Structure formats: structure tokens, C-alpha cells
Amino acid sequence: MKETPKRFSSEAIISISAIIIAIASIFISVWQGLETRKHNRLSVRPNLEIHFTASNEGFGYSLINTGLGPAMITKRNIIIEGIKGQDLRINEIPELLDINDLTFSYGPTDQGASILAGEKRDLILFKLNSEETRFRNLLNEVPEKLIFRIEYRSMYGEKLSCSSSKE
Known about the structure:
five-stranded antiparallel sheet; rod-shaped; 9 strands; Immunoglobulin-like
């Protein structure tokens, strides 16, 4: 008489299915945790942008945080026609650009400064005191001669940077 092959019992099938479902749920939980962590980092990531603005009253650079979280400035470099320096002070810029006759103001953007989400700070603003032809020349010259580079970090310690140059 022939023996019939033994098949898996229903208890064995249920046990194996339970093990497969448990392993799949572990992988899904780990994946979901990683995606949640990624989402949390992105939901508070800062995004600093440097804008050159000009109006009838003057011109200058502004720093804007268009991201969702605060940015902590770690380094600010100012480059003026090949003169580069982290220690270069903003109040030295008019003299180096040979525009001492313009009144200027600037905001706190040194190392350690914190820029909140949605906040706008002036890097440097020049107020016009002279004729319109010189104003047009300055609008062409200053953005080419003066470049700001800012390095900053997010609250999670991610290192980011922005620059006023188009490069």
C-alpha cells in the first residue's frame, strides 16, 4: 500500500503565516520610523536666501529665512573684488567699495546670530544721497563687487549655506 505524503497541518500553516506577518510588520515599523524622522527634520529645516533689493530710497542686501525652522549662523564671509575675509566687518564695506558718501545700516548677522522662520534681516542697506546716474552705476557695480556667503545650521545640526552670487 502506498503512503500518502504528509501535508502541513493547519496549525503549522497558521504559525508560519504569523511569523511572516510579524517580520513584515517589523520592517514596516522601522521604515515608518525612518520616514517620520526624515519628515521631522524637513519640517524644521531653515532656508536662508540673500536678496539684492533696490528702490528710489536706496539699495542693499537682505537675508531672509524662507524655511520652516530657525537658522543659526556659523560663519559669514564677505568678498569684495578678491578681498575675502571672515573677519571683515560690515562697517568697512563702504570704504572698500569707495562709496563713503552714502549712509548705510546693517542688521545683526554675525556668527551665533539666530534667524527665525519667516524673519528678514538687513545685511547692509545704502541710502541714496546722490544723483540718479551714480545710482544706476552703483546698481550695476555693487552686486558684482560685493558677495556675501553665509554658513548656517539647523536645529538638528545640519550644515547649510547660501550666497549672494549667482554662481
